Amino acid sequence: MADGHITYTEDNLTDAVIARIRPDADPRVAEVMTALIRHLHAFVKEVRLTPQEWEQGIAFLTELGRWCDDKRQEVILLSDVLGVSMLVDAIANRHDASVSDTTVLGPFHRENPPRMKNGDNLSPGAPGTPLEIDVTVCDQDGKPLEGAQVDIWHTSAEGYYDSQIGDGEAHFMRGRFVTGPDGRVHCFTICPASYPVPHDGPVGRVLAAMGRGPMRPTHVHFWIKKPGYRDLITHIFKDGDPYLHEDAVFGVKASLVTDWSDGKLTYQFRIPRQDAA
Ligand code: BEZ
Ligand code: FE
User: Fold this and answer.
1) pLDDT tens figures, 56-96
2) Nearest atom, ligand 1, residue 221 CA
3) What whole-number distance in Å separates Cα of residue 28 and Cα of residue 39?
4) Which of 79, 104, 194 to probe ligand 1 with, by most ligand atoms within 8 A of CB?
5) Which residues have CB less than 5 Å away from ligand 2 (the ion)?
6) Beta-strand pair 232-238/257-258
7) What totals of helices (H) and strands (E) does the chain contain, helices first?
8) How far is the CA of 140 from the centre of ligand 2 (A)?
9) What stretches of the chain adopt beta strand conformation (E)?
């Protein structure tokens, strides 16, 4: 070895890459990048990644980016099907049983849903089994909260969101409510269906290669916002759905599964104050 030069090897490369992070780098950047480099190198060593597999991986990541536009987010979808989205959510929303469970947002929320009031119909004229939604927004102690914004969205009886139907411009099977003094949101709609996550792209190929299906169990989405309180992004799932145990994005939690067999979805959401531990 020529004096002053070093040969990077399997044994010293990981530490050498980590050592290049400058001591004056932002501490969080240094922490995250150190762990990322360590885990990436450990992964390559564990599977003994071949140059051909490395090339395939690069081609896959490049393709993921190409599939993304304002209607399709293939990178988040990969995070979802690998359980990363739910892991981040679980860490960000550690709480006790007095607060409602969270789950993934998914790609089908829209910024400006139709404004609705109690008694309205989310899906006028849509074919399907009628479903009544009757939910209450409460604080951690069960006291109803006035002035909470509640966005609700779900699929058609065939398992499509409005943005997947026709030119995707019309808004239906969704609405935005604001709670009154009783904290209640009450509306009518039709029962959604289980449906596949978008699986015609690179993420679909990964699912198929692992022998996994793309289905999500039947659910209705809720996003609750109230100033001074933490946002609650969650779904309520239909008990008895055959896909509850094989949700493609691992979003199911037992506390969010309810019985709709009488045509009614009822739930009491409990949201914590912003500053709650
Ligand atoms: C959804 O529930 O809308 C959803 C969540 C994650 C990925 C795809 C869809
Ligand atoms: Fe959904």
Assistant:
1) 999 999 999 999 988 889 999 999 999 999 999 999 988 88
2) 2
3) 17
4) 104
5) 106
6) parallel
7) 6, 10
8) 26
9) 130-138, 149-153, 174-178, 184-190, 195-196, 215-216, 219-225, 232-238, 257-258, 264-270
Q: Which two tokens stand for residue 197?
A: 């996550």
For residue 254, give the DSSP letter.
Answer: G
Q: What is the DSSP letter of 215?
A: E
- Residue 185 β-bridge partners: 135
Over residues 136-181, the pLDDT tens digits come to: 999 999 999 999 999 999 999 999 999 898 888 888 999 999 999 9
| Rounded Cα distance, 13 and 17, in Å | 6
One-letter amino acid identity for 137?
V
Q: pTM of the prediction?
A: 0.93
Which conformational region is residue 116 in: left (phi greater than 0), alpha (psi within -120 to 50 degrees), or beta? beta
